[in-house]
Amino acid sequence: MISTPRLTQCLTARLLRGQRLSLLCVRRLLGAALMSCILVGASGAAQATAATSEARTQAPEASATDSALDEMAACLRSREHLLLVLLIDESGSLRSTDPQNERVTAARLALRSFASLSSTRATAEQPQIEVLVAGFSSSFDAVTPWTALDDDSVGGVEVSVDAFAGRDDGIDTDFPVALIGARRELASRSAELSEGGDAEPCKAILLFTDGRYDVETGDTPARREAGIEKDYAPGVSLLDPASGPVVEAAGRDLLCRTDGSGLADRLRADGAAVVTVALAAQIDAADQDFLRALSTGSSGTLTCGDPAGENAGAYLAAEELSELAPAFARVATSIAGATEAPGSAVVETCNGTECESGRRAFDLDPILLRFSVLADTRSEGTSMAVRAPHSADPVVVVPGTDGEAVLDGVALRWSWVSDTAVELNADLPAGRDSWIGEWSVTFVDPDSTGVPDRPRADVFLYGGWTPDLPTDTNLLRGAEADLVVVVIDAAGTPVGGEALTDAGARLDATVTDPTTDETVALRLRGPDAQGRYRAKYTAGADITASTLDLDLRLIAQTATGVELSPSTARYQLEVGLPDLYPHVTTPEIRLTSVRGTGTARGTVDIVGGRDRPGCVWFEPPEFESFPAEAVSLSYELSTPATAEDCIELVPGETRHVDIFIRPTASSEGTVRGALTVFLSARGESEPLSVVVPSPSTSRRRSTRPADWVSSSVSSSPECWRHSPRWCS
User: Would you state the CATH architecture of domain 51-338?
Assistant: First the structure.
């Protein structure tokens, strides 16, 4: 699949490292061309070696996990669309490690959390969560199509998840096969969604396993039925009992190669984060290190791919079955931007009537948007009483019965995902104070049987404030600019300075040159009475980037001191050039979609500068990083232009230039590169240059709604290796 973002005004772009060839739209005075390609087809197996490196300084695991999940939350806030592959282990060991099928309950809770986010979030645009459920053992098996999660559809997806209670007879735990399949599904769906001009979605794989990477060998009926050879270890027979270490070494190599072609790095380059939830009791330390490195890039001295790469995932270990559902819930709620309420989640069961020891309390504050409770009563007969600060009577959540109610003006809805697990969601109406104060849930056994189980209630709070750049802000090389930033609530209304001060709001802002990765922290002044923060920034005269990234990060706390998860936003600030020069006016270039052998095509409009003639020319694009099976990429222009034979434009004249791109072979994944463009104006001694890099897929936010376009291509004409301009 070839995906292309925007082509803009004409100047220089150079290739940056990575695996996304991206074309970014920039308006008015500057630009270059970047093209983003996702190639889909038959990918060959890579031979690689697992990598280790010297120990590097790491943040504590919890902090690293929080950071990774925060990045995914930031992506969802900016893109409003998440593709999620729920990938569940089907190995035979689950019969002993998870006899009560807690993984099914945990997966259902996660699905409910994602579905409730899509259905209840009070923003201008509801985020869309699409899920594909798949199992893996010796093969990858998608058991559902891509499904948009909401209150209406989640039940059907849960039925498919329920089937995993009986899917526990697989003979392998084959992570390479599982991730190859998940990557192919993500790439295909992403291209379908973005080919019409919509932003490329966020992507994640939620992987559950109870074991180590393991391939069974030996001449058995089960082995023959599952396959006697792995694609990534051709020629090695699994019927030979001694072949196991050889095959597993090849698989680890495929996953963890460090030259950019390893599967872990290719997933990260695609923008797909791997989040692993492991039932760790049966997994030894070395194998947990491997799973952690596979997900995050490193674990101690063990690395898997580039440990410093973008889109690192997360690893969560559940040491016992009772921790499995909270681990799944943490992934879902963290990506949704939630903060876990303070206090112990584990309480006691009250006998007959409510009691203090069975009570889980939490406070609600005007800064919040919603809250959710994921509870496990631990007993089929136990109910949950929900109390609000100003209502005399509680709402009782009866075991096994889904329902809705209104309490202190708050609409509550709950659903049971198993005999003992229930999810409750609540939207907090703005402009009212009836719901502010202490809430609680209490677990009661109405039959007074003295149930010894200790129920658990995980409470998640969702903030409603977001940093915002209220107006388009453009920079001019060498000139000082005034930046104004505000904080808005869920309705898009600016938050006043007094409220920000009361909430202890801390707003940080940085400007990053994406071509050099140099970052400058801004000194923000404010907030003033209207809630505005101000800063001054000067774009250096030597900056070559056409846009700079403005990253905003807001941390605020509730009245009771609960610090909410950071709310982040990224904006791209255009760096202007003198208007005497020609420039590209195309607001967005879109390459046509290609299925099978073919060419992707797009058009660029170039307009002459003010008052004087100009000239525009191109250099061949560089394609440094792309799937190895693609061999190379080629391009042509409908109007070839070099420094000696440029495109001449009189002031105000418009010219159209078509761009054609082809890969030399079928593959899948993403590619990064750049098309170099120059422009000059008569009377000016030198052409101006600019670099438009590929933006970070994990953090990107734009002032424009549609920044990415995807199309797909699968082609392998041999002549393109020799004479790309004349291939038919």
Answer: 3-Layer(aba) Sandwich (3.40)
Pick from 361, 367, 371, 363: nearest CA to 413: 371
Strands 272-279 and 314-318: what pairing? Answer: parallel
Which residues, including other chains, have CB under 8 Å from residue 380's CB and lie 6 or more apart?
399, 400, 419, 420
- The whole-model pTM stands at 0.77
- Judge contact between 271 and 313, C-beta under 8 A: no
| pLDDT tens-digit map of 224-233 | 999 999 999 9
CA 572 – CA 580 distance, rounded (Å): 23
DSSP letter assigned to residue 7: B
Asked if 51-338 and 350-463 have one fold, the answer is no
Please, which residues have CB within 8 angstroms of residue 677's CB and are 6 or more apart in sequence?
A: 10, 11, 12, 13, 31, 32, 33, 584, 616, 617, 618, 619
Q: Cα–Cα distance between 620 and 632 in angstroms, integer?
A: 13
CA distance 525 to 509: 11
| 3-class state of residue 364 by DSSP | strand
Secondary element (H or E) of residue 335: helix 324-335
* CATH code matching the domain that covers 350-463, chosen among 2.60.120, 2.60.40, 3.30.450, 2.40.50: 2.60.120
Selection from 386, 318, 335, 384 nearest residue 76 by Cα: 335
Q: Name which of 359, 347, 345 is nearest 441 in CA terms.
A: 359
Whole-angstrom Cα distance, residue 564 to residue 562? 6
pLDDT digits (tens, 9 = 90+) for 489-519: 988 899 999 999 999 999 999 999 877 889 9
Q: What is the DSSP letter of 197?
A: S
Cβ contacts of residue 397 below 8 Å, gap of 6+? 383, 384, 385, 386, 403, 414, 422, 424
Tokens linked to 92:
């035979």
Which amino acid, one-letter code, is at 153?
Answer: S
Q: What is the DSSP string of 669-727?
A: SEEEEEEEEEEEETT-SS-B--B-PPPPTTT---SSS--EEEE------GGGGT-GGG-
466-576 CATH choice from 3.40.50.300, 3.30.565.10, 2.40.50.140, 2.60.40.1930: 2.60.40.1930
